[in-house]
Amino acid sequence: MKAAVRDRFGPPEVVEIREIDKPVPAEGEVLVRVRAASLNLGDWYAVTGRPYVGRTQMGLRKPKDNRLGVDYAGTVEAVGANVTQFRPGDDVFGGRNGAYAEYVCAREDRGIVPKPANVTFEEAAAVPVAALTALQGLRDKGQLQPGQKVLINGASGGVGTFAVQIAKALGAEVTGVCSTRNVDMVRSLGADDVIDYTHEDFTRTDRRYDLLLDVAGSRSWSACKRVLMPQATVVLVGGPKTNRLLGPLGHVIKLRAAGLLSSRNVTFFIAKFNKPDMVVLQELLESGKVTPVVDRRYELSEIADAFRYMGEGHCQAKVVVTVRGGAR
Q1: Facing residues of 150 across strands?
Q2: 177 pairs with which residues across the strands?
Q3: CA-based angle 136:124:38, to the nearest 5?
Q4: In 78-157, which residue ranges form alpha helices assigned H by DSSP?
Q5: Which of 79, 143, 164, 286 has its CB surrounded by the most CB atoms within 10 Å?
Q6: What's the CA gap between 302 and 283, in Å, rounded?
Q7: What is residue 122's predicted lDDT score, i.e. its pLDDT?
């Protein structure tokens, strides 16, 4: 089968399409014929090998695993022994290492669920990592309650577009921060208010928030705390990737350290795949409360171009890679 691989860290050009062995489902696994996959910032780090601190997990000199990708959507082609939840022909979506390929094997009891009929393969592939991050950040780490006011800094990116919709589904009053070209899109997702950071400093307004979901990581603690309620929570999801050694962790460390002297709770986390939360996302998609936003589409053979576009830093929502006619 064809798959996107890289044998060394570097620019997008290190990614190539290669023939590798087609996986065989083990006991409790399903073999999925991938129709579409999507890019996340973690995939970009896996290609570039940055920040360098991440190489303790990725591999010091070269990748421990040359496969790439996590998010996918497709059709079950075969099942291993004792699989009871899926059968060949089922359309599914989820997360599994090596998703930029024609086939992937996934455990039926982990991050895989049926794809709702009202979303395409491309839309479903855009969901897993970004939407899980938004859901777990708002509901679990942020403890968001109905009626609370939430500020989403970086509302037009992959995590941000899901965060706006999930926060509304949880009953919050949502303010999104984004650039001029994304204002209408963020408002269309249900945001009650949208702040264009090119014209207005969101840390200088007279509004106060119960929760800040910080995806962009663009402002200091001293600036952010001005718009936070005394007992507010700050959930750090991302930050600038310009620091070659620490990447977004530099921003995270600074804000967490500053928050120790405050009554506000500052926390950082990385989303984890689990079946119950994937079911929640499935239900939100099926009900129409969450609609994935796809910025650009590339073929698997064009995946280096997809990474190059992501590296420019101007993605609006999600970038999707189509595999074997995934739009059907």
Answers
A1: 174, 211
A2: 153, 195
A3: 85
A4: 121-125, 128-135
A5: 164
A6: 32
A7: 97
